[in-house]
Structures are given as structure tokens and as C-alpha cells.
Automatic annotation (TrEMBL):
PANTHER family: PTHR45749, ZINC FINGER MYM-TYPE PROTEIN 1-LIKE
Protein's name in the database: Zinc finger MYM-type protein 1-like
Natural source organism: Heracleum sosnowskyi
UniProt domain TTF-type: residue ranges: 95-189
InterPro entries on file: DUF4371, Znf_TTF
Length: 314
């Protein structure tokens, strides 16, 4: 059948697979594919580690590198590390404030651009996830951040919560850097979702327990089966909480693993003990070395067992 087929070039000659347009001396060493050979294949593209630009304000986006050499570019940048000028006098901005070199010690991802007098995030530059919530959030990857008055607050908000884009980029950086552990990171995205759901589930359970402890209500119900009309305070309030909080609902009840519901009596008791321990620590810290008085009450149940309760201290 080959004699009836006409083979065409995979890539037309007018296509430039990798364009570097940086007004920098480093561009002279950067690789630009020869577009005069239409049969050239992407797999033949080579990368010169010496051609990468260290200054984050002058480098091109990682996505503009050919996909076949993108990992090589990442390895070259990781080998160099974040760009941090040494013995450099940082210029003052309009508020007479400057970038502080000691910030490098607190944030391992932080790098500084002499070209733009701005701060950048190396992890997000190399592994920034393509997510809808990243729209317009390119201060630490493209434009740079230079409002030094609010720098520390901005740096911490850039890190964000567990599910933030920065933390996801950090996990991808660690997985890429530790190639020997790559198998354990194959399911990193799924593992991250499991971790977030677990935190939501645990927070919801702990919130219900704290409420019941403050009000002095009982936890268990006479019938806690799935078809019971009244499963007791703990399960009923937890179900109400799940129904009124979409995030908690998606991570709890039937959506949670069967062995990680966090609703068993044993888990309830462990969390109650943890709350009791925290309460005692706060009381001890409040009292210190001062004198104090206790108001104690005692009663007997139907089995004539004594029960002592502490009402308050002063």
C-alpha cells in the first residue's frame, strides 16, 4: 500500500516550534530550530543548559519551550537553584522600601529579578498547575511582585492553604526532583485530594464534638443504624452539618472511605480526650503559680456510684 501513499512532512516549514525573543546576551546561545528543514522532527530538538537565563524577570515562560526539552529545562533550573543576587544593593521603590535579602532564608522558593526589581516564585514558574482559579494570578511567575511594604503578607498568602496552586507546584517540584521516589508520586494528585477531604471530615467531626462538650449534651443514640429516625446528637448534628456545607458533604458519609468515616465511638472518645487535654493545658496556663478555688459537686447514680464534677475555678 505504500506505493499509493504520498508521505508529507510532519511539520510544515513555516512552523517555528520554539522562539526565543529576549533582549539579552544569553539569547545568542539559545537554541532556535532550523526551519529550512521541513522534515525535522521535534524529537531531534536539543537543549543547551548554558542557554537558560537565570534572572526570573528576563526568562521566557516554561510553556514556550518545546515539550520534548521542557523537562531538561526544569532540571537545568533546579540545578542552578533560585536566582538570588549576592552582595547586591537592592534599589528603593517609590515608598523608599527595598527587597530584603533575609527573606530568602524564610522562603526557599523565593528569587529576585534584577531586571525587574521584583520577586518571583521558582516552583510556580517550573510547575505551575493549569487550573481555573489561577486566572490572572501571575504576579510571581510573569510580572513579578514589588510592593515591599506588604511583602511578607503577600508571600504567605501566595503559599496559601493545602490545596493552593503554590503547594501543588511545590509537590510537583519535590516529585520531579526525587526521581527515585517517582513511583510514590504517581498518585500525588489523588493523594492530595484524599488529604484535603480527610481534613474537612476531621474538622467537621471535631466541630460537632466541641459543640456537644460545651453544651454538656450526650453523644450516643439508642439506635444509630442507617434507617434510624434519631441516631443521637452526634450523628444527627453531623448529618445536618454535611447537608448545609457542600464541601463537608462531599468528603463525609457515603463519600468517605468505609474505614475512615471518623464517626465510631472509639474516634469520638479519642477526640474528647484530646479536647480535655487542650482544656487542661489552657487552665494550667491561666492559673500559673497563683492560688485558685474550685466549685465541685458530687452525686450518685442509680447504681450508687459517685460522680464528681468540676463546675468552675476562680
Amino acid at each position: 500500500m505504500d506505493k499509493f501513499l504520498i508521505k508529507r512532512p510532519r511539520f510544515p516549514s513555516s512552523t517555528n516550534t520554539h522562539v526565543l525573543n529576549l533582549n539579552s546576551a544569553a539569547d545568542s546561545n539559545a537554541f532556535i530550530p532550523d526551519t529550512n528543514t521541513p522534515t525535522q522532527k521535534r524529537a531531534n530538538i536539543e537543549f543547551n543548559p548554558d542557554s537558560i537565563i537565570s534572572d526570573p524577570g528576563a526568562r521566557i515562560p516554561i510553556d514556550e519551550y518545546d515539550v520534548n526539552i521542557r523537562d531538561q529545562v526544569r532540571r537545568a533550573y533546579i540545578a542552578k537553584g533560585p536566582f538570588r543576587p549576592v552582595d547586591y544593593t537592592f534599589p528603593k521603590n517609590g515608598d523608599s522600601r527595598t527587597f530584603q535579602a533575609n527573606w530568602f532564608g524564610e522562603f526557599d522558593w523565593l528569587e529576585y529579578s534584577i531586571h525587574k526589581d521584583a520577586a518571583f516564585c521558582m516552583w510556580c514558574y517550573l510547575f505551575n498547575p493549569k487550573r481555573a482559579d489561577n486566572s490572572g494570578k501571575n504576579a510571581f511567575t510573569t510580572t513579578g511582585f514589588k510592593k515591599w511594604k506588604k511583602a511578607l503578607n503577600k508571600f504567605r498568602s501566595h503559599i496559601g492553604l493545602v490545596g493552593s496552586s503554590h503547594n501543588e507546584a511545590t509537590r510537583r517540584y519535590q516529585a520531579f526532583k526525587n526521581q527515585k521516589q517517582s513511583i510514590s508520586h504517581v498518585f500525588s494528585a489523588q493523594g492530595h485530594e484524599i488529604e484535603v477531604d480527610y481534613r474537612r471530615r476531621l474538622t467537621a467531626v471535631l466541630t460537632v464534638i466541641q459543640l456537644l462538650l460545651r453544651q454538656g449534651f450526650g453523644f450516643r443514640g439508642h439506635d444509630e443504624s442507617s434507617d434510624s429516625l434519631n441516631k443521637g446528637n452526634f450523628l444527627e448534628i453531623l448529618e445536618w452539618h454535611c447537608e448545609n456545607n457542600v464541601g463537608v458533604g462531599k468528603a463525609s458519609r457515603s463519600n468517605a472511605p468505609g474505614n475512615c468515616q471518623l464517626t465510631s465511638p472509639k474516634v469520638q472518645k479519642e477526640l474528647v480526650r484530646a479536647c480535655a487535654s487542650e482544656t487542661r493545658s489552657l487552665i494550667f496556663a491561666d492559673i500559673g503559680n497563683s492560688f485558685f478555688t474550685l466549685m465541685v459537686d458530687e452525686s450518685r447514680d442509680i447504681g450508687k456510684h459517685r460522680a464528681t464534677s468540676l463546675h468552675r475555678f476562680s
